[in-house]
Amino acid sequence: MNIGDKAPDLLGINEKGEEIHLSDYKGKKLVLYFYPKDSTSGCTAQACNLRDNYDALRQAGYEVVGVSVDSEKSHQKFIEKNSLPFPLIADTDKKLVEQFGVWGEKSMYGRKYMGTFRTTFIINEEGVVERIIGPKEVKTKDHAAQIL
Predict the structure, then answer these.
(1) Which of 147, 32, 28, 30 is nearest to 91 (CA)?
(2) Is 43 a catalytic residue?
(3) The pTM is what?
(4) Catalytic residue of the set 1, 7, 43, 69
(5) Which of 53, 75, 98, 107: disulfide with 88, CB 3.0–4.6 Å?
(6) pLDDT tens over the chain, length 148 residues
(7) What are the domain boundaries of the chain?
(8) Is residue 63 within 8 Å of residue 30, measured between CB atoms?
């Protein structure tokens, strides 16, 4: 998925088992952020920063949806533990991470594995990708400011 591309309407299934569609956010900008794993330090810092600045983001016309390959149950715990006010998509079949090109080989301590690259897509009111904040640019503790 690149700047100027039209995002798919069906984004996935949220933590409650409900389908999330891009059309649910018609007339708003959507912050679709992909993150590696629920309840890890960086992902928690990022989610909490978006939570703490959620009102400011909404006042600026944004809605927030998080995506990881964790299960609905894992997402429910993550949301409850951190009082997250936005939905999280459980992309367990990896359809969305592959569609957006954020799934690939990563390496930690010399070990290679497949995982999600922390990436944020700003999708405009017409459903077109307007901005991409890539893995090397995302500041987990100050992510809302990057978006605004």
Answers:
(1) 32
(2) yes
(3) 0.96
(4) 43
(5) 75
(6) 999 999 999 999 999 999 999 999 989 999 999 999 999 999 999 999 999 999 999 999 999 999 999 999 999 999 999 999 999 999 999 999 999 999 999 988 999 999 999 999 999 999 999 999 999 999 999 999 999 9
(7) 10-15+26-136
(8) yes
